[in-house]
Backbone:
């Protein structure tokens, strides 16, 4: 038996990780192909793959994927561009924090999905509205988490920098930001995951393209295979973006792993 | 007597009470004159306000009363003219050893080529050649503190402040670090203010030992150390050294007892 916190080897980790996927698909196959679950409600894996193939080759699902990815990335990049500097300022300067923190904490709990009807009124059902949903869903979270990270910077590092002649500006640019850059990257990775939820909800409600739109269309056709395929595609994209983010962080912050 | 570089005038520090408690007097009004090129160790029991005094000189803490003058100018805040080495490891973890040593020079806007020369010379002086491109995490505690000393010295401060810099190191490393620091001082004659609670360390390094009382701290004794330079570690067993040690042990013991009784 394994002891608490005892590490596993790399190969064991891979085998264990894959075996859960295998088990999952096996259980799903037994439930559907074995006839325990009605095909009307849950397609079997083979139908799902077949439907997925049809979607990709015949119905231009790739462009739907492209549009969804574009929306997430677009909304998220705008949110990050606004939120990271604000978060850094809030963490660094306590008056700014006192001014913004109560509102941001409040706004953070406003569900982005509940804004969708309002945003449709304001911005129609075009791209602007999708970007806004993701923006609203992400921006407050990022601001707050970055502010907390920056506010928790080791004081002794800041003091050391002062005794080495850093100006206040130097402290922000050459201590607070580099010290927290890996944490900020990690925050962005986390929030990007949430942004995926917002985009799909936005596409389910008012959209003419995108993965969410395909899923809601498939519902009307009772095409559960397509719906599941859509959901799995989202999962795979999430996995890929996570992987890319982690690889980037390793490359950008070697000192963290040194 | 050489000229006075640092003047501490009636500096006191009272910390406000926590949660409505009574304010804590950490430092009684204290005065001290530091001559250029002096190596002064400030010796006292834990919590005697010696670190507070050093932080006030560094400009990281404000005195409740009195003032500190460096070269005749009152200290208003931290600055590059007072280099500091902390007890905790304060190297910037995202910078390599060379980049850490160059940090202050970069903040000053010194051109890159000049920076490289200064960094190379200090990397040599603290014996870290070959580790320039390592990150702090990859180095032992002693090597990190050596880098911290080099980082402070590279800035060419008027005075070097050290706050129990070897406190977290094991005994053997600590002894080596003392020799290294003393060697640098003997060659470069920097003015040094060194806070410690280790009696042997205080004597071995200092040209003057300042003994502080238990909280609230004030200066109890000011003892010149006339041991010749260069000093070798074998000096720690000489009769003169032992006599000084016995004298300081007595001074400190009384304070430690009092501090202990106060709790």
Residues:
């Amino acid at each position: 038996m394994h002891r608490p916190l005892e590490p596993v080897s790399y190969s064991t980790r891979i085998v264990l990780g894959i075996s859960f996927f295998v088990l999952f698909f096996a259980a799903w196959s037994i439930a559907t192909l074995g006839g325990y679950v009605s095909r009307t409600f849950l397609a079997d894996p083979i139908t799902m793959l077949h439907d997925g193939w049809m979607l990709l080759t015949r119905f231009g699902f790739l462009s739907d994927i492209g549009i969804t990815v574009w929306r997430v990335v677009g909304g998220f990049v705008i949110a990050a561009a606004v939120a990271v500097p604000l978060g850094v300022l809030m963490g660094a300067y306590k008056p700014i924090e006192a001014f913004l923190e109560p509102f941001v904490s409040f706004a953070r709990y406003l569900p982005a999905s509940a804004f969708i009807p309002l945003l449709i009124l304001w911005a129609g059902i075009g791209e602007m509205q999708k970007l806004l949903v993701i923006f609203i869903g992400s921006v407050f979270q990022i601001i707050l988490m970055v502010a907390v990270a920056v506010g928790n910077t080791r004081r002794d590092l800041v003091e050391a920098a002062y005794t080495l002649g850093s100006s206040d500006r130097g402290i922000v640019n050459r201590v607070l930001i580099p010290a927290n850059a890996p944490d900020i990257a990690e925050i962005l990775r986390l929030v990007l995951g949430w942004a995926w939820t917002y985009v799909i909800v936005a596409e389910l409600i008012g959209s003419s393209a995108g993965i969410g739109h395909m899923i809601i269309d498939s519902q009307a056709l009772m095409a559960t295979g397509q719906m599941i395929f859509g959901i799995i595609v989202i999962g795979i994209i999430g996995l890929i973006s996570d992987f890319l983010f982690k690889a980037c962080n390793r490359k950008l912050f070697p000192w963290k792993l040194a | 007597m050489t000229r006075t570089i640092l003047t501490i005038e009636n500096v006191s520090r009272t910390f406000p009470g926590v949660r409505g408690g009574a304010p804590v007097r950490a430092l009684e009004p204290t005065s001290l004159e530091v001559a250029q090129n002096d190596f002064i160790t400030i010796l006292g029991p834990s919590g005697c306000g010696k670190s507070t005094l050093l932080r006030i000189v560094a400009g990281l803490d404000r005195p409740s009363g009195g003032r500190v003058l460096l070269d005749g100018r009152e200290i208003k805040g931290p600055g590059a003219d007072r280099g500091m080495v902390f007890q905790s490891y304060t190297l910037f973890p995202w910078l390599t050893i060379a980049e850490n040593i160059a940090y202050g020079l970069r903040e000053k806007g010194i051109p890159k080529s000049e920076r490289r020369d200064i960094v190379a010379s200090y990397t040599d002086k603290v014996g870290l050649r070959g580790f320039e491109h390592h990150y702090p995490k990859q180095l032992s505690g002693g090597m990190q503190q050596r880098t911290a000393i080099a980082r402070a010295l590279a800035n060419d401060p008027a005075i070097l402040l050290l706050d129990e810099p070897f406190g977290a190191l094991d005994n053997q490393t600590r002894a080596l670090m003392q020799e290294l620091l003393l060697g640098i001082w003997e060659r470069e004659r920097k003015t040094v203010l060194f806070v410690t609670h280790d009696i042997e360390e205080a004597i071995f390094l200092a040209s003057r030992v300042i003994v502080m009382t238990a909280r609230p701290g004030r200066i109890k004794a000011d003892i010149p150390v006339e041991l010749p330079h260069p000093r070798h570690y074998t000096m720690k067993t000489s009769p003169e050294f032992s006599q000084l040690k016995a004298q300081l042990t007595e001074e400190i013991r009384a304070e430690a007892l009092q501090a202990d009784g106060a709790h």
